[in-house]
Amino acid sequence: MFSRVARRAFSTTKFNPYKVTVLGAGGGIGQPLSLLLKLNHKVTDLRLYDLRGAKGVATDLSHIPTNSVVRGFTPDEGDGLKEALKDTDVVLIPAGVPRKPGMTRDDLFSINAGIVRDLAAAIAENAPNAAVLVISNPVNSTVPIVAEVLKSKGVYNPKKLFGVTTLDVIRASRFISEVEGTNPTTEKVTVVGGHSGITIIPLISQTKHKLMDKEKREALIHRIQFGGDEVVKAKNGAGSATLSMAQAGAKFANSVLAGFEGERDVIEPTFVDSPLYKSEGIDFFASPVQLGPRGVEKIFPIGEITAEEEEMLAKCKETLKKNIEKGEKFVTQA
Ligand SMILES: NC(=O)c1ccc[n+]([C@@H]2O[C@H](COP(=O)([O-])OP(=O)(O)OC[C@H]3O[C@@H](n4cnc5c(N)ncnc54)[C@H](O)[C@@H]3O)[C@@H](O)[C@H]2O)c1
Ligand SMILES: O=C(O)C[C@H](O)C(=O)O
Q: Is ipTM strictly over 0.90?
């Protein structure tokens, strides 16, 4: 039985009808991500697609008494991908293979580039107005792949394409709190650049811990940049981060939906088509972005940084430029 207060709160809750699709929903990230989206009251229509397993995951989640209807789609019955995408508002893409120990994210390009390209073509056809949140690695290259496919189909909207770098941001909060003995939920670290090794730049100088001693700071930065390797090593061949990534992906998706709903001051670092370093041939860059009803509302510059961070930025740009070009050429020179 609901108490009177709970009943009143429930009956006055406003549900906006958002359709959200997860491509790769049967996987290590896909399953917990779908669970977290099922628990999100902003989501009313949840569609799960995978080559296999999506129907079982959807049926399982469909017993949870939250606001959304959840359906699973696979390619074996009719056009599952088309049905999963039709007129959806947000698409999250965790489809693709994860790393094993000894691999870089770039080593995943040979398999994941084709997967992401084909899914992007289906998005262009069935959900050209959707916000697309790319999780599949290597993000520095898969985001440009999606952009080029959407451009080739005449439906590219740079305000609605996002590389999800939220895992770097949540790791930074957690790791800095471990170093400083503080509450991780109140630690905010701006992380800019891209999503792999030295392209991940946590701006410690912009935190309240800017006076941290050099040795401690360098170890912290290295841990944030290579946090993914920590998980790959610990899972010992069974994949990479899935649960923390699901949390990160659900958090970012919630922010995108909050922006759609017109909530004010929704700001998240994310890897987007950005003017910040375009003059240097870098088409995409992660920096704090204000999200709104049309997607990207405002891209913030990275602000004042130290000489040490300038050096990191220079190295990041070199790698990022190559990663982005690799993704773009995969589509344009095919
Ligand atoms: N952006 C980030 O911060 C971040 C963090 C962690 C992992 N990742 C990346 O996410 C991806 C997925 O990782 P995972 O651990 O969930 O892998 P996983 O192997 O557990 O799951 C991937 C799922 O994708 C599905 N899939 C493959 N091809 C597909 C297609 N064409 N259409 C639909 N589904 C397809 C598979 O069937 C599988 O269920 C990897 O590339 C990984 O590197 C990114
Ligand atoms: O490390 C990986 O390969 C997965 C992901 O990009 C991560 O940062 O955990």
A: yes
